[in-house]
Amino acid sequence: VPRKPDHARKPTPAGRLSRRALLASSALGAAGLAVSSGPQARAAVASPGERASVEPFAGPHQAGIASPRPSSLVLAAFDVRSAGSSGLATLLEDWTGAIRDLAAGRLASPADSGETIGLGPANLTVTVGFGPSLFDHPFGLGGRRPAALEPLPTFPGNDLSPLSGGDIVVQACADSELVAAHAMRQLTRLATGTAALRWIESGFAPPAPPAPGPPRNPLGFIDGTGNPAVGSRAFRSTVWVAHGDSPPWLVDGTFLCYRRIRIDVRAWDALDRAGQQAVIGRAKLSGAPLSGGGLHSPLNLAARRANGHLAIPVDSHVRLGAPDLNDGATMFRRSFAYENGLDAATGVADTGLLFIAWVADPTAHFTPVLTKLAHLDRLNRFTTHTSSGMWAVPPAPGAGGWLGQGLFG
Ligand code: HEM
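Predict the joint structure of the above. Result:
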C-alpha cells in the first residue's frame, strides 16, 4: 500500500479563483448579496480574506470522501417518516438541488435561513448514504439492498446508544463550522414531513500542519499515515464499488463505516510517552513505526528489540490493523475529533473520535478488522464505542440527475 502524506489544503489565493468559485460568488450576488456585476464584482470576490474555495459536486463520486479533509464536520442521521417511496425520491431530488447550490456558495432556496451569507462556500461537501433500515421500509426497495449493508456488530465493552444507525446519513464538511451546520440545517428543513433527524454530531480536524502531512488526533498521534494515497490504484480499489459489482446503483459509490469512540483522556494522559507509543505502535513525535525509519516507512512487523520483544507490540493498534495481518484488508480513514462537554458520570470530558472509514466492501475490509481490534487492541483500555452505523453511499448524480436516483430506476 503506497503511503503518502494526507492532502495539504491549499487555500485559493486571492485573485486566482477558479471559474467555479467565481460563478459561485456571483451566484451569491444573485442570492441577494451586494456584489455587483463586471470587473468590480471580481475585485470584491477576490479580496483578501474572502473564502470562496469550492469543492466540485460533480461525479463520478460524491464529494467529501476523496476531498481534502476540512476543519469541520457535521454528521447526522435521518429516519424516513413518509409512507411512499415517491416522497423519499422527491426529498433526494430536493436535497440534490440544495447541495448543488450550497456547495457552489448559493443559498439553498428563498427560505434559506442565510446565516452564512458572506462566508462563501468554504469547501463545503455534503455526502449522502443509505442505511440498512431504509431497505426495511415498505417502499419496495428491499430487493435493492446491497448484500454487504449490515449493521456493524456490538462487542463487549461497547456502550452503543440507541442513537446509532439511521435510514439516511448526511456528512457535511467545510472549512467553516457555520457553513457545515448551515447546510445540515437546510437539508433538515427540506426534509420536514418526509424525514426527521435521528441524531446529529459535530467534529473538527486540526488545521493542516505547516508541512504537508496528516493531522494529529485527540491522542496527539498523527492519524491517517496508513491510508492509501488519494487517487492511487490502492485508494480506488479500497474505496469505490467497481463496475460489474453489485448492486449496479452503487457502482462508483462506497460504504461509510462509523463509530463514535469516546476516549478516556484522563487515563490516556496519565500514561507516559513510551506507554502511549506502545499502545499505538508508532512514535508520537515523528509518527514513525516503532520498528524504525520515518513517518512513511513501512511497518516491519517482524522487527525485535534488543530484549527480544516485538518492536511493534503484539497488541498494538497498528499491528492489529495492518493489512499484512488482515488478508490485505485496507480502508480509508477520514475521522474527526469531537468535544462534547463533561461526562457527568465520570467527571471526565466527553472527548473522542467520530471515526469514519470508507470502503468498497465492508464485509471484507472493515468488519473483520473492527472485530479483531475489538477483542485484542490495547487501545480499548482507553476507548468506548458509543455509536455505530453503516451506510451505502451512492455515486454522484449525473448532470440533471439526483442522489440515489439509480435506486429507484
Ligand atoms: C479512538 C479510536 C482510534 C484512534 C485514536 C486511532 C488512532 C490511530 C493511529 C494514531 C494510527 C496510526 C497512524 C495511521 O496509520 O493513521 C491508526 C492506524 C490505523 N487504525 Fe486507528 N484509531 C482508532 C480507531 C480505529 C478503528 C475503530 C479502526 C478500524 C476498525 C482503526 C483502524 C486503523 C487502521 C487500519 C490503521 C492503519 C494500520 C496500518 O496499516 O498501519 N482505528 N489509528
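The CA atoms of residues 197 and 404 lie 19 Å apart.
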